Amino acid sequence: MTALLALEGVERVFGGVRAVDGASFEVRPGEVHGLIGPNGAGKTTIINLVSGLLQPTGGAVHVGGQPIRGLAPHRIAALGVARTFQNIRLFPELSARDNVIVGEHLRRKESLPARLLGLPPAREAEQRVRERAEALLARVGLEDRMRERVKNLSYGEQRRVEIARALAAEPKLLLLDEPTAGMNPVEVEAVAALIAKVAAEGHSVLLVEHNVRLVMDVCHVITVLNFGKVIAEGPPAKVAEDPAVITAYLGGPA
């Protein structure tokens, strides 16, 4: 099966620091692929490289077999890549529903003049967009909060709005950067179920997450980074027993 995402010897240097050092791995269709490692291992840098916020210093990144090096973030998004952020990036004065509607922009087909003039096709499209945003918010457990301004939502609720906004683009590849940060155990369990369902529907997920139990429960494959290098990769059970992984997390033998 052809990989949806492929990194080949990817490097990213900041001054004299190699944040990513020759990283190679693949994410296949319908797969939840975990990317874990200690703080500073280079996980978020890889998410930024895949989404186009950063450009690699060396190596290659392919999405659907197409090289994306040099492409702007909106060009990469148009290839079917959506993401969340480690630090939440929402519009605080807008409602949860309106924030999710923003994520629909790549799917909108009606022209700007038709929307400004309020022509019937545009009005019908607006109604469909609102209904879809409401359905996505219900999917992440926020059906009772969809009209609330985002600034009034809890941190965990804002995280779920961001996931709904990413799903609004109907991505082939969903990049989740610490999606359960600030959530309570019940919320974490709900997000785990959502990630599993998204993958079952045929989407691929690259998951950066510090909640190791969540990663072990939902991921098909895990790649472990340390100081920008891939030190282990494989099914969760195999990775959990890898001596290099234990040393990276615990500083020595278990």
Describe what you observe in this structure.
It is a single chain. The protein is an alpha/beta fold and 254 residues long. The protein contains ten helices and ten strands. A hairpin with a 2-residue loop joins strand 1 (5-14) and strand 2.
Give average pLDDT, whole number.
Answer: 88
Query: How does the overall form come out from the CA principal axes?
Result: globular
Distance between the termini: 36 Å
Count helical runs. Answer: 10
Strand order of the largest sheet: 6-7-8-3-9-10
**Estimated share of beta-strand residues:** 15-25%
Overall SS class: alpha/beta
Run of helices and strands: EEEHEEHEHHHHEHEHEEHH
What does the radius of gyration come to? 19 Å
Main β-sheet, in a few words?
6 strands, mixed
Low-confidence stretches: none
Helical residue percent?
25-40%
Number of strands: 10
Q: Which characteristics define this entry?
A:
six-stranded mixed beta sheet; single chain; alpha/beta; 38% helix; four-stranded antiparallel beta sheet; 10 strands; 10 helices; 254 residues
Q: What is the topological layout?
A:
Blueprint: E1 5-14, E2 17-27, E3 32-36, H1 43-51, E4 58-63, E5 66-67, H2 73-78, E6 81-83, H3 96-102, H4 112-117, H5 120-139, H6 155-167, E7 173-177, H7 185-200, E8 204-208, H8 212-218, E9 221-226, E10 229-234, H9 236-240, H10 243-250
Parallel strand pairs: 3-8, 3-9, 6-7, 7-8
Antiparallel strand pairs: 1-2, 1-4, 4-5, 9-10
